[in-house]
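Figure 6 in text form: structure in, sequence out.
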């Protein structure tokens, strides 16, 4: 039996972000009711979902599962369809009584949604989750990287970059006065640029520069702004170009560790001046990439991406469960009600990096490497910033 037509066609060429502005609990209840119905139909002929490329996927309990949208609140979940051959690949999401292909989730029919827009509605939170956890964490990360991206909190300050109807990038900020971590009473002493991601096909288009400029302009009254430590050589190249273009910001940008007091800050502009080797490293990597025929790809061993949680910069990471495990649990819990449907609980990886290509970035935290800056700077870690192939 053919499944309901995709949301895009049924909704008259509008997309979830354009219509999901209401109560997220109502959306979840509808998904749970549908899931219960799906379990009851398991013995009969399963429905089939048609992907945009023509591929048909059976809607069975072994291929669907719930994912929590927020890191700290597993109560809000979305129902996803996974590839039967690759359970770590999400194909579609059930929203507003329809299955939507992933690419439709990150689209909009609203022409006024252009440029960097603050995330406010639940629909925009889902777009952020899809860009963050699914597109980066599952679809566009390197095949040699076994680290997943951590989902954001429900109150994370974030902006999505919209271009011609597509969500192409995002960045998040740890606000001044916000808690560094749920397990501490320490608060950030300055605004900190925390995570950045630009989709692969939109890199090297100047979006990294636009994001840095927007970040600085969003806090014009602040004397100091931070970028989460550690910062990679590639990210320093973007910062160098930005600070050369905007010299008025040279005294404001700092590489910081939480919570960001003066003993935890290093001037980004000063470090650029004292470490010319950063520029040399970028030139070598770019040359190697061009020789390999990949537009902006560095060596495979350096092509890693991790989630960034500045509140846990110096702690080790934890793994996120495999979706395949959740799918197996679905079969074991087949007779459960929708309210008892299994959920994939995300654990927070605390080791992270920050990645981008020239002007497009995914900031993440990684292994600590010590580097001395001519005796003038404290030992700081180099944050890995790379392009995904």
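Output sequence:
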């Amino acid at each position: 039996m053919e499944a309901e037509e995709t949301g895009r066609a049924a909704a008259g060429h509008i997309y979830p972000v354009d219509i999901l502005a209401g109560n997220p609990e109502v959306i979840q209840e509808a998904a749970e009711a549908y899931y219960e119905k799906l379990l009851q139909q398991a013995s009969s002929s399963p429905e089939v979902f048609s992907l945009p490329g023509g591929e048909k996927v059976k809607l069975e309990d072994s291929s669907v599962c719930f994912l929590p949208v927020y890191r700290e609140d597993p109560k809000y979940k979305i129902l996803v369809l996974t590839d039967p051959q690759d359970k770590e690949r999400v194909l579609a999401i059930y929203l507003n009584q329809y299955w939507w292909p992933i690419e439709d989730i990150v689209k909009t029919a609203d022409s006024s949604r252009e440029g960097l827009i603050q995330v406010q509605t639940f629909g925009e939170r889902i777009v952020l989750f899809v860009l963050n956890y699914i597109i980066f964490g599952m679809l566009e990360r390197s095949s040699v990287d076994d680290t997943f991206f951590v989902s954001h909190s429900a109150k994370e300050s974030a902006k999505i970059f919209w271009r011609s109807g597509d969500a192409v990038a995002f960045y998040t900020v740890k606000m001044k006065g916000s808690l560094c971590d749920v397990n501490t009473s320490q608060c950030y002493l300055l605004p900190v640029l925390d995570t950045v991601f630009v989709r692969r096909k939109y890199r090297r288009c100047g979006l990294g520069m636009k994001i840095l400029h927007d970040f600085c302009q969003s806090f014009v009254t602040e004397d100091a702004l931070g970028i989460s430590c550690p910062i990679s050589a590639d990210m320093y190249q973007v910062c160098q170009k930005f600070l050369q273009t905007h010299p008025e910001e040279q005294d404001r940008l700092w590489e910081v560790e939480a919570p960001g007091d003066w003993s935890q800050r290093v001037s980004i502009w000063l470090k650029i001046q004292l470490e010319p080797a950063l520029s040399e490293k970028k030139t070598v990597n770019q040359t190697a990439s061009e020789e390999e025929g990949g537009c902006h790809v560095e060596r495979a061993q350096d092509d890693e991406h991790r989630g960034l949680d500045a509140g846990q910069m110096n702690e080790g990471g934890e793994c996120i469960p495999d979706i395949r495990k959740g799918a197996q649990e679905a079969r074991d819990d087949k007779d459960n009600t929708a309210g008892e449907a299994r959920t994939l609980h995300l654990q927070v990886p605390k080791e992270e990096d920050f990645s981008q290509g020239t002007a497009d970035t995914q900031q993440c935290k990684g292994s600590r490497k010590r580097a001395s800056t001519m005796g003038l700077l404290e030992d700081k870690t180099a944050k890995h910033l790379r392009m995904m192939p």
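Caption detail: The chain is about 25% helix and 20% strand.
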